[in-house]
């Protein structure tokens, strides 16, 4: 069958999107993340309300749950790629789409298409909750600062998801991929932040942190949002490239 | 006893188990070493406020190994095999061979317990060695009672992971929840700021068995008792659910 290459790409992308959308665990994960985020936002807000009133930044409290929120998106990324390997779906996929590089790029693109709106909604819900609850006590915030922060948060979550998907392709098993990523994001990285402050800014998560954290005077923001985005994106691109190289070379 | 041996052999041949052993044996030592390096100057000057935590912090944060162990022990049974090798579940075979579900669960839990005890002893050895190497003569003495508390904490954590996975059948959720909750900034810790009830959560109560910090809420013994109660309740629930559930549903 001969189809033009632009049509081919659309078809591959459509197939990848459909596979992703029909994966039941994807929706369960997203819903779970959404609910967990609201619970955490409530907890952080109530802690914030107990603290010195009027001095807290709504954005900071609304985004405090980001630290935990990223776990949901890590799972999402891993699920998207590792689900191919449980039960041998990968062979069907590669039989119908024998262009491995194309196929994996389309998968990442499809994942980004699903993730971006979801990440925005989930990040915004936390900030919105903090906004409503702290209306009386906190300082007024400008709307464009809020949008800038939310875009940063969405970008960070999307990059994290894509990075996790690439790691999932490399390791091909859900549990090791999950352990490696969660271990890095939740245990290794917070420890390194304390013990090796000189290189901490160049890890994907700490660099990504500057993408959404509003600059404040009492902390030293070493990276600007643009620099943070650059470092984070570089990591993601490197991992995706490595994943594609391995994916093309390796026996499925 | 034969079921127990079979469970041990199954656990040792799991594809992901090397990760559990590796992390369980060395993560606590690495964390303790990093913490020791960061604290060294303060300890030598005698102004450290966290002297009682040195070393133990590794054992508190390094429980990921046994979490993976507990989760993998159950989730591997429910993994659907590839369609070209039959597409079956291991659990069907296991329950055909050991037909009493209660015995099956008991044998598996015992296997997990035994491996966690061994793993925690290895972890304590590496952690104590690492602390002594870094701090030399300033290293605090490790008391046996607190080390036993740490071993109990590891066993209970492994069994919690085991019990939750029996209920969910899928490893992703318990692994995520427990790993995040054993990290540096735990959700339980956040909740303690909101309500005092959070001190009764299993990980918060359990860590009081050997972490003597300023925000300890329970005595070591009651902490252990509370965590044990969580494990016991979870096991009863898991046993009932497992007993009544259709195997592959």
UniProtKB/TrEMBL annotation, chain A:
Transmembrane segment boundaries: 21-48, 68-88, 109-130, 150-171, 178-196, 226-247
Keywords: Membrane, Transmembrane, Transmembrane helix
Keyword Transmembrane on entry: yes
Transmembrane helix among keywords: yes
Signal peptide: none
Coiled-coil intervals, chain numbering: none
Protein name per the record: ABC transporter permease
TrEMBL record, chain B:
Highest taxon listed in the record's lineage: Bacteria
Keywords: Membrane, Transmembrane, Transmembrane helix
Parts of the chain that traverse the membrane: 12-34, 54-74, 111-135, 147-168, 175-201, 221-242
Keyword match Transmembrane helix: yes
Entry protein name: ABC transporter permease
Organism the protein comes from: Lysinibacillus mangiferihumi
């Amino acid at each position: 069958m001969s189809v033009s290459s632009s049509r081919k790409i659309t078809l591959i992308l459509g197939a990848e999107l459909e596979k992703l959308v029909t994966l039941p665990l994807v929706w369960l994960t997203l819903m779970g993340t959404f609910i967990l985020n609201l619970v955490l936002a409530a907890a952080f807000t109530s802690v914030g309300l107990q603290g010195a009133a009027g001095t807290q930044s709504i954005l900071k409290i609304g985004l405090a749950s980001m630290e935990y929120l990223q776990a949901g998106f890590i799972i999402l990324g891993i699920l998207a790629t590792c689900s191919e390997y449980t039960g041998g779906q990968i062979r069907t996929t590669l039989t119908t789409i024998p262009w491995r590089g194309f196929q994996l790029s389309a998968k990442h693109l499809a994942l980004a298409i699903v993730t971006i709106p979801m990440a925005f909604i989930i990040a915004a819900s936390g900030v919105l909750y903090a906004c409503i609850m702290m209306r009386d006590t906190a300082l007024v915030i400008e709307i464009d600062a809020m949008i800038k922060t939310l875009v940063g948060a969405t970008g960070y979550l999307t990059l994290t998801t894509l990075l996790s998907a690439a790691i999932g392709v490399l390791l091909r098993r859900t549990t090791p991929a999950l352990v490696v990523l969660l271990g890095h994001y939740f245990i290794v990285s917070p420890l390194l932040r304390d013990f090796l402050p000189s290189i901490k800014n160049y890890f994907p998560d700490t660099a990504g942190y500057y993408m959404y954290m509003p600059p404040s005077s009492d902390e030293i923001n070493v990276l600007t949002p643009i620099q943070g985005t650059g470092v984070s994106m570089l990591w993601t691109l490197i991992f995706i490239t490595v994943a594609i190289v391995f994916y093309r070379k390796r026996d499925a | 006893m034969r079921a127990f041996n079979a469970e041990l052999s199954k656990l040792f041949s799991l594809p992901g188990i090397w990760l559990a052993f590796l992390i369980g044996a060395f993560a606590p030592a690495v964390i303790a070493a990093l913490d020791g390096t960061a604290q060294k100057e303060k300890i030598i000057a005698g102004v450290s406020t966290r002297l009682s935590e040195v070393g133990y912090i590794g054992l508190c944060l390094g429980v990921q190994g046994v979490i993976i162990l507990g989760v993998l022990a159950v989730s591997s049974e429910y993994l659907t095999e590839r369609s070209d090798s039959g597409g079956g579940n291991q659990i069907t075979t296991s329950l055909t061979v050991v037909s009493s579900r209660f015995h099956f669960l008991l044998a598996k839990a015992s296997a997990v317990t035994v491996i966690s005890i061994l793993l925690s002893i290895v972890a304590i050895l590496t952690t104590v060695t690492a602390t002594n190497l870094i701090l030399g003569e300033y290293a605090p003495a490790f008391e046996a009672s607190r080390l036993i508390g740490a071993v109990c904490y590891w066993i209970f954590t492994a069994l919690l992971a085991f019990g939750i996975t029996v209920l969910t059948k899928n490893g992703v959720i318990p692994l995520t929840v427990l790993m995040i909750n054993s990290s540096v900034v735990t959700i339980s810790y956040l909740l303690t700021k909101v309500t005092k009830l959070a001190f009764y959560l299993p990980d918060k109560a359990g860590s009081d068995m050997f972490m003597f910090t300023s925000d300890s809420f329970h005595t070591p013994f009651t902490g252990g008792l509370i965590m044990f109660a969580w494990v016991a309740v979870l096991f009863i629930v898991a046993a009932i659910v497992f007993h009544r559930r259709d195997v592959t549903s």
